[in-house]
Amino acid sequence: MVLSDLIQNIKVISIWGNTEVEVSGIQFDSRKVEANSVFVATCGSAVNGHEFIGMAIEKGAKAIVCEKLPTEIIDGVCYLVVENSSDALGKIASAWYDFPSSQLTMVGVTGTNGKTTIATLLYKLFRELGYKAGLLSTVCNYVNDEAIEATHTTPDALALNELLARMVDAGCEYAFMEVSSHSVDQRRIAGLEFDGGIFTNITRDHIDYHLTFENYLNAKKGFFDALSSDAFALTNADDKNGLVMLQNSKAKKYTYSLRGMADFKTKILEHGFDGMLLDMNDREVNVSFIGKFNASNLSAVFGAAVLLGEDELEVLRIISSLSSVSGRFETLRAPQGFTAIVDYAHTPDALNNVISTINQILQGNGRLITVVGCGGNRDKGKRPMMAREAVDGSWKAILTSDNPRNEEPQDILNDMVAGLDMTQKANSLTIVDRREAIKTACALAQAGDVVLVAGKGHEDYQIIKGVKYHFDDREEVRNCF
Description:
The N and C termini lie far apart (about 60 Å). The strands form 4 sheets. Strands 9-8-7-10-6-11-12-13-14-15-16 form an 11-stranded mixed beta sheet, sandwiched between helices. A 6-stranded mixed beta sheet has the order 17-18-22-19-20-21, with helices on both faces. A hairpin with a 5-residue loop joins strand 17 and strand 18 (about 340-345). The protein is built from 16 helices and 24 strands. Helix 4 packs across helix 9 and helix 11 (about 350-360) packs parallel to helix 12 (about 385-390). It has 3 domains: about 5-95, MurE/MurF, N-terminal domain (Udp-n-acetylmuramoylalanyl-d-glutamate--2,6- Diaminopimelate Ligase, Chain: A, domain 1, 3-Layer(aba) Sandwich), CATH 3.40.1390.10; about 100-320, 3-Layer(aba) Sandwich (UDP-N-acetylmuramoyl-L-alanine:D-glutamate ligase); about 330-480, Alpha-Beta Complex (Protein-Tyrosine Phosphatase, Chain A). About 50% of the residues are buried. By secondary structure, the protein is an alpha/beta fold.
């Protein structure tokens, strides 16, 4: 492509050199630069791409997009100075792949909890309705039925647009994606055209990155602020910040709720470990999902599908046939008569939701044993909160390792235990080895009890000192059976 065509949608402060040159590709990683490519020098949280402009030119870059002009200007290279190079990368990547998001009906889902479930169920729903559709999620990406491994909740701008272009090439009409707060803050979704946005909820998470809850909230809100007047914005009216998300949005505004008046209203009529009977906009439907949080998720799925023009009754028929997402309240029955539940809950609020749901169903007719840990190199402030949620809601809590990354597992556990008083400590065990913790929980369980293994859900690995080891909570539970 010609460089001038790529940069039509970005605000360029100054240009040094000729923009009427053919370029062969785009890169923001200098190690991947090839001859005649564009190198975008992004300012990451760990690495500043401006430090690698020289290397990119040595490898053959013909154009440099940067926020600050280098001291040395090389003849034959075009330099474009922009206000935000990450934002420019998203828009250039979109142009390179022929604006794939504009050729799809795209819906983004953001919030602390529920993103994966809602995006995945919408994808499954629209596939069942007969449409070609794609999914971008934490668990796995899909182009129709082709699975593509997911490495981030939201991929980088280049990978994201490449995946969307693959969806277009495969004839997809719809794309459903999780939109993380990181992706909004880092402008990975810059240049994308969304036809709808869904807000789930917001509680403490990623404070290690955003530093304050306000910054985290504003990152989520930024997604809705950017929606066009042709899009819809569907928010959870039960979350105290649900309506905050819509304050500056130009999109058409809608709500869903379990508790009050809303455009899409859901009530739980009956619930058990096998599913729920719901009333959704005055129509009863049986679903195989469990818990208030899943009733809320399904309300969002129902609302979004209707807003996309689908028939209410047909949507409810398919919702009744859908199954839970991998590692999200995944129920396993033990031959010994107890129930094991594997869930991705890794924030205090998510853990509270899962534990509360289990206890509501048990109604004192069984004990809850919870296995939970906290990730290393992440927000330390939530560690004592996670421990308290686990202990206060369980007959016995077993605190263990999660993904310690580069931290010592025992140090993480010490942070968790520091949040407990003497009574709470008496109701907990600390077992560093996650496999042994799960074995212990299953050994303690009797018929009618529930073992909750929380924190990792679909993940099939542990990261210890930078090395990824295979570890799947579901496999470990089945081995105990």
